[in-house]
């Protein structure tokens, strides 16, 4: 289980690094050749935030596996709870930053077929 947890952690970090590289290349391409720098910067922040969000999800999964399956003690569970709380707050903050609105406002702001007519 320790190996599985370490592999998931490595995948999470790797995903964040790969996402940062891809977002940077996309930023440079869009900025230089298509939409211009302001639009490129907006897309860059959103793409980078998505990569970080996905990486954080994998890191939380690795922490849960590592704590619950490998060394289940009350102290480790308290630490896990604090780590999950911090990473959940980070994920929530990134989601608000990327989307520009609160997550529960998504459904209310999406136009329906009748609204479009």
Automatic annotation (TrEMBL):
Origin: domain of life: Bacteria
Keyword list, A-Z: Membrane, Transmembrane, Transmembrane helix
Positions of transmembrane segments: 12-36, 48-71
PANTHER family: SLL0939 PROTEIN (PTHR38468:SF1)
Designated name of the protein: DUF1622 domain-containing protein
């Amino acid at each position: 289980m320790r190996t599985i947890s370490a592999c998931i952690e490595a995948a999470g970090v790797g995903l964040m690094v790969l996402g940062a590289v891809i977002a940077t290349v996309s930023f440079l391409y869009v900025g230089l050749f298509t939409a211009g720098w302001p639009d490129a910067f907006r897309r860059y922040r959103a793409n980078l935030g998505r990569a970080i969000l996905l990486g954080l999800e994998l890191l939380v999964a690795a922490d849960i596996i590592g704590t619950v399956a490998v060394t289940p003690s009350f102290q480790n569970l308290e630490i896990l709870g604090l780590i999950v709380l911090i990473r959940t707050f980070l994920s929530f903050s990134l989601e608000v930053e990327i989307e520009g609105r609160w997550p529960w406002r998504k459904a209310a702001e999406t136009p329906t077929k009748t609204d479009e007519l």
